[in-house]
Description:
Structural class: mainly alpha
Mean pLDDT: 93
Helix content: 40-55%
CATH architecture of the largest domain: Orthogonal Bundle
Radius of gyration: 24 Å
Number of helices: 24
Largest sheet: 5 strands, parallel
CATH topology of the largest domain: DNA Cyclobutane Dipyrimidine Photolyase, subunit A, domain 3
Strand order of the largest sheet: 3-2-1-4-5
Amino acid sequence: MVQIVWFKRDLRTIDHEPLALAANNGPLIPLYIVEPEYWAGPDVSARQWSAIRPALEELNQRLTKLGSPLIIRVGNAVEIFSEIHASHGITSIFAHEETGNAFTFTRDKAVKVLCRSHHIKFIERRQFGVFRALETRDAWAALHNQHMAKELIPEPAKLDTVSGLKTQSLPTAQDLGLGADGCANPQSGSRQNALTLMNSFFGGRGADYRRAMSRPLEGRLACSRLSVALSTGAISMRETLQRCYHERRQLAQSAEQERAVPLTAVDSLVARLHWHCHFIQKLESEPELEWRAQHPIHEAARNIGPQPDSLLEAWATGHTGLPFVDACMRSLIATGWLNFRMRAMVQSVASYHLALNWRASGERLARLFTDYEPGIHWSQVQMQSGQTGINIPRIYNPVKQGYDQDPDGTFTRLWLPELAKVPRRFLQEPWLLDANALAAAGVNIGADYPVRVVDHIEAARAAKIKLTAIRAEAGYKTEATGVFIRHGSRKRPTSNQKSKAKKAETKQLTFDL
């Protein structure tokens, strides 16, 4: 009879409660199941598997040193557990709670059915500051803070292994049917990479974090870049936050001019790490948000029919003729990463300017993000598409964003070399140039670079009219109140924030363009 530690999106040995619990009970099997059915889904890609592989290899090395190597199995989880139970007899399965996509949600329910039928204990522990069966959001922030304040769970000193169970080799992306996706060097999701990133951020890399985070070029260096390791679980959110608190205390003891990064940079990073769990809690509390709008009136108005393939493809591949949008998408395709503000902008353009179904554009974006985290992703896709009813709609002006966030045009020219010679003041709107100016810049609109698929001003105006009509429907505010009760932030405001909140109330049905 054996116990299993089932690793999923928690590829670490430190601050891993299921592993610690099982280690105290005796011999165990550390198990990771590569599920081809999952990797055949519409929201996953080769870059994500390429980020997970080094985390698995690193985890295996660590577990081997502790005495029990990681067992890899490829196949259906229920079938694999049934096979192990037949050969070894499973008494308990220890795992973290996973807030994943519809596939993992359905798979976990099937595994629990198997456990009940064979009298196997299925013991789950909290992965993030996310809580199952949460009746109200009112106490969430306090619960989250309590969880994050607990001491880190140390790595077990030793693991007792179980013999007689063979492992399999880790498949390649090609083995899983994942074709090349344009990302030649995706970021590793390993623990070592996460620790290196934290050291460099607090060592000075994050000095310009608050200013640079909104800019796609400078943000690549200044942002923490911890999202990939957090998505693989190679480092826990609790360890990450506690490292931030420790560094802030250390920085506060030195003179301002001697600090490698300002206190405000650490505070901003902490705030964003808190949002991580806030958004995952939405999907945990309402799994249907992966495919259904938060606000029922928006869901009723959603176009769920066939999408205009040419528009979706132009947007997803960076060929809309809107330079900053295209530069952001091409950068994302090549690197697997984009800063938050630009993620919001490209989704906003897809949903508002191009009127694409957020599900269709959301799936394409999910495949492009190396750090894809379903809870954050689908909550943000809905928020940036105006589907929540509790957030001020932001219809980003992609031309203005280009001039604001790439003022000298370096980022745009890097990813759109065909526009390299276009003067800076026309770089984000080359359609304003006459034929002579385009010829001087060596650009043939329609040949070298696409004609813009929409007039961004007219498209934004049409989106605003449509959204205003939806938000004016009977019962809209009542339904929005219900959404807020389920998912709204209960963060206690400061006096300054209270005055801002009062102003925001009057803008609830207006637009942030």
